[in-house]
Design goal:
Layout lengths: L14 E6 L4 E6 L8 E7 L7 H4 L4 H20 L4 E6 L1 H5 L3 H12 L3 E3 L2 H15 L4 E7 L4 E7 L2 E9 L3 H11 L4 H11 L8 E5 L1 H13 L11 E3 H12 L3 H4 L10 H18 L3 E5 L3 H8 L3 H4 L3 H13 L5 H9 L8 H12 L12 H11 L7 H14 L10 H4 L4 H21 L3 H4 L2 E5 L3 E7 L8 H14 L3 E7 L15
Helix pairs in contact: 2-4, 5-12, 6-11, 7-11, 8-11, 9-11, 14-16, 15-16, 16-18, 17-18, 18-20, 20-22
Length: 514
């Protein structure tokens, strides 16, 4: 299934999506339409269109007024920001309500916005595309819990599977069940899941999409004092996720408000979100849960891209977009990629994409004071809104740039976070960062100089070979940085040798890669 809008490539003007949900209406303005879009502006209005819908089958006058007012504001903001395109999509509440069409017409008159009402199948499809947009080759089931409904579909790397379901298990109807039945609310929920949700999983992963479930993830991160507080890519074992969710939905609302990490706006619906997460995980029995910050809106945006742009790696694209804008010499990152191409033996693409991202981000802190570059880069990258990576990969990337800026291995500012990395990845990040640092010092950020230099690493020594064309004499500082590379690798002997010029792209000979 594709959007009926025209496919778009990488535009340079701002692009906006307005999502009219059952609980909230949100505007997100993206820097541009791209594989790794960065939100430039994000605002939500709690309109609660779905409140009372089960009883009346109508949207209340008050919620419609709030929605129209939000649409008018969002249109004004988007126009002032020079947004070139605004897509407006509506979901469960508008499609179910008998007066949903009247609201759509009023938004058209008052805000000059054309609203597309998505079917349940389309909603599941675009939410799943959001997961494809946000992760590297995801495979498993996607569950998107909104204010009015729960959509579930399968993702298989770069496509959405054939089967999907839409169930009336959004936060608002489940909140009403909790108010009416208390702990017994799980019984009708289980019955709905049993009737509508097949338990079989092709992959042992459940991707949790939606603000309520991200709030559960944030509260869990706070409860364990996680050093990384990013919901996207946060992974929990199913047993732990269920136990934690149970602990939340069984609390009285007064105690939910006291939980660390929960926003005041999420307090009324957090128990409902936790209850559905608990029951869905019981029904599906995956091995683990992966939380996603990307969902319906990002999936809609992803569907607007040309096929070539969809195939791009979201992490690499995001790192290049951000890193290029910060770098002194934007053309130097590709030279660093060639400089490190032969560094690690048996490098998989999962490894390579982290190296490419590190090269792209290796000059983001040149404007900072030298004393804070390493630590501040680490802190920034650990929390930066990149997609296409999990927490371990996020920490690896930050640790690599920390080492590139001469950060100490025992830096207390990063210690609790880096300790989450396996020892082998800590060593790999240190080597990569120090090789990047050597590349900058040797070449002065001049790609042509770096193209005429190679590192040769064996079990006995680290040898820097410099071609005649580089015209870079030996220096004490270069030797010091070469020694740091050797220390990271675990050898003592280093050598700098002048050799015949290299052809760009020619790998070093007789190299035992790390």
């Amino acid at each position: 299934m594709e959007s009926d809008a025209e496919p778009a490539g990488r535009g340079e003007r701002h692009y906006a999506v307005v999502d009219i949900g059952s609980n909230s209406v949100r505007l997100v303005v993206y820097e541009r339409l791209a594989r790794a879009p960065f939100p430039r502006f994000n605002e939500k209005s709690l309109c609660r269109l779905g409140a009372g819908l089960d009883r009346t089958n109508e949207l209340s006058a008050e919620s419609c007024e709030r929605t129209i007012a939000a649409a008018r504001r969002f249109r004004a903001v988007a126009d002032a920001m020079g947004v070139s395109r605004i897509d407006v999509i509506a979901t469960e509440a508008v499609r179910r309500a008998s007066n949903g069409g009247a609201l759509v017409a009023a938004i058209g008159r008052e805000a000059s916005l054309a609203v597309r009402i998505l079917s349940g199948t389309e909603e599941a499809h675009y939410a799943s595309l959001g997961v494809i947009a946000g992760f590297y080759r995801p495979a498993g089931l996607v569950g998107d819990m909104g204010g009015g409904s729960l959509e579930v579909a399968e993702v298989l790397h770069d496509r959405v599977g054939e089967r999907s379901v839409s169930l009336a298990l959004g936060t608002l109807p489940v909140q009403a069940l909790l108010a009416e039945l208390g702990a017994d609310a799980k019984r009708p929920i289980d019955a709905l899941l049993k009737a509508g949700l097949p338990p079989a999983l092709t992959q042992p992963v459940f991707y949790a999409v939606g603000g309520g479930w991200r709030s559960v993830a944030r509260v869990h991160m706070e409860s364990i004092s996680s050093p990384v507080r990013v919901a996207h890519g946060y992974i929990l074992d199913t047993r732990e996720a269920r136990a934690f969710a149970k602990g939340i939905w069984r609390l009285p609302e007064s105690k939910v408000a006291a939980l660390p990490g929960v926003s005041s706006r999420r307090v009324p619906t957090l128990r409902a979100s936790a209850l559905v997460l608990d029951r869905v995980l019981k029904r599906l029995a995956p091995e683990r849960v992966v939380f996603s910050a990307l969902g319906l809106r990002e999936g809609w945006l992803y569907a607007q891209l040309a096929a070539d742009d969809r195939s791009l790696d979201p992490l690499v694209e995001g790192a290049q977009t951000f890193g290029k804008a910060q770098a002194r010499v934007p053309e130097f990152a590709p030279a660093l990629v060639r400089w490190t191409d032969e560094l690690f033996a048996g490098e998989t693409y999962r490894d390579q994409r982290l190296r490419l991202a590190a090269c792209a981000l290796s000059d983001i802190a040149w404007r900072d004071h030298a004393d804070v570059r390493a630590t501040e880069s680490f802190r920034r990258l650990v929390q930066f809104p990149f997609v296409g990576l999990n927490h371990i990969e996020r920490i690896f990337l930050a640790a690599s740039i920390h080492a590139r800026y001469a950060g100490a291995g025992d830096d207390p500012a990063i210690a609790p976070t880096v300790e989450l990395l396996p020892r082998s990845l800590r060593r790999r990040a240190l080597i990569l960062g120090r090789v990047l640092r050597l590349g900058y010092r040797l070449s002065g950020s001049v790609p042509e100089i770096l193209a005429n230099a190679r590192l040769s690493i064996t079990a006995a020594e680290v040898r820097l070979e410099v071609g005649h064309g580089a015209r870079v004499p030996d220096s004490e500082v270069v030797r010091e940085r070469l020694d740091l590379v050797a220390s990271a690798v675990g050898v003592r002997r280093t050598e700098i040798a002048e050799v015949a010029d290299f052809e760009i792209g020619t790998p070093p000979q007789n190299v035992d890669r790390v």
